[in-house]
Description:
Helix content is 71%, strand content 0%. By secondary structure, it is mainly alpha-helical. Helix 5 (74-89) packs antiparallel against helix 6 (101-116) and helix 11 runs antiparallel to helix 12. The N and C termini lie far apart (83 Å). The mean pLDDT is 88.
Amino acid sequence: VDTALAMLAACNHSSTPITILEDTYAKVVTAMSASGSIDESLSMLREMVVDKSYTPNLQVFADVATACVRTKDTKDAEKVMTVLAYAKAAGYQLDNIASTVDGRTLLASGVIAAEMLDNVGLGLRFLTAASKAQGCAPDRGDALVSTHSPAAQRASTILHRQAIFKACQDTQWQLAVKLLEVMLERGLTPSPSVLRSVVYCCSKAEKSRKATSILLDWVELAKQGRVDKPSLRIFNTVVNVCEVCGEEELTVKVLDAMKDTHDTEGNLITFNIALKRLAKQGNTVAC
């Protein structure tokens, strides 16, 4: 790398004009980023885009961005935003670069950097941009970016989890449900704590149908071995909100799912809920 830089400097200061190809600059930028010389690679990338009006291949931007997050240093993670700014200055649109492998690598680095910087909104915006890319069929651009690598998958999962927890904390059940749906669409598996939070949020808002739908989806995920099965307490919560909302058919459906999942008719709490239901109906004999 040092030799290449010296040769470039010599060419630039030569009394005889020497044309340096764009590809040569690109190779040096990639080599510097691979060796950990991030600031130097950023400086030359800027020279290519701003001073020489080159449009480097997306792979060059992706290589530098990958090097920035590889150090696991938040200061270097911030530099990914500079790389993305240079990419936009070079003419690339973040909404369509996910159709290429290098574009997905660049956006994945942005997602990883956003998680490192604890910027949930920014990370989710990168994934939203990826979702708009054409030419990814039969997959979706955001799903390809969020599962691009183990690091990208981890960062994407954490970003969605934090966003869902915040929505539940603010009692925004619609946002929480939407984020959970998008999370699943992106090929990410929510943890039991995430699913539990959304179920509780919907139940608290007395949205029995949504709470039931999420619970039944949770049961299916558990059958696939992707998450732990919901506890009896979760089932009781949903049964209770179904009763409060007068959704008797949903109550039966949840009770059937509970029996299938835990091989039980329920516990004391379930019994009390059923007793309240019978009393409300005036069925004293059954009570």
